Target: NAD(P)/FAD-dependent oxidoreductase
Amino acid sequence: MSTTESLEERIECDHDVAIVGGGPAGCAVGVFTARYGLDTVIFDRGRSSIQRCAHLENYLGFPAGVDIETLYGLMHDHAEEAGCEIVPDLVESVERADDGRRTPAAEPTGATGSGDGEGFVIERQEGDSVTARRVVAATRYDGEYMRGLDDDAAMFETHEHDGETHEHFDGEYADHDGSTPVEGLYVASPSIEDRQALIAAGRGARVGHRVIEDSRRERGYPEAVADHYDWMRQESELDDEWSDRDRWREWFDDQLSDDHDIDDDRRVELRERDIDRSFESYLADEVIEQRAERGQKRLLEHVDDELVLEAARELEADRHVSEAGD
Model:
């Protein structure tokens, strides 16, 4: 299917990305997809395997470890800050949308996906069903909700135990980047490598990147620029050459192969949108300071008030001692 054809008919979906599971893997996926501009929802019933941990002591950034309630609050706040919607509901099943849900839709104004395949219908335990162009599985132990997508019987594996046959989700079903044989379905968890929270978060970030890359490819971005680098830069690093918009245009056009099938208007649209995104990643010194201060304040929201007051009293006492010494 050519790029032009793929844009003529889109699925009207409630979300670009639906993530099943709001632990480290699921939230990491959501932070990346939502920051890019994909409409992202995370379904989390609070059953993440990390809830079984007494105290997490090997998650980077917490020198004395972190209690699970605080970590969970930080992860969810981060996902919501990035733009995710977090829904406290259990997903009972994920299935392909039927043809009746395919309707012509206008070209989205944001950086949304193309709606490959037929999209998905997510059946919830309590709320109404919703649709999504892409689904990311991010639940550590349970993959039963994906049964309806297992057309080739490759998703689950069987084993014998005490004379009985048991079946469970195959941790090697997905590729290293989370992609699967089911178009539009990705697996961040369960996998064979996500048995530590920090590793699970890293895998989620990798899967999030793959979702973004696929979205960009389907929107017509050439392979050479399909990868997306989410990185804020200092404005002072923007030299004279790359502060010129025409230089970015030249670079982008050079990445296109001679036989690309993107019409000229579409090429210009994608190019200018990407250039805008690149310039927005360069931050002035005062903006960096503002974001640093806001980041510190958001962290304080998760610190016990008494501990904050105690630290303030200690700082005040130290200040008096210092002034007395002068």
Q: What stands out?
A: The longest helix spans residues 197-218. Residues 285-325 form one domain. The chain has three domains: 3-218, 231-283, 285-325.
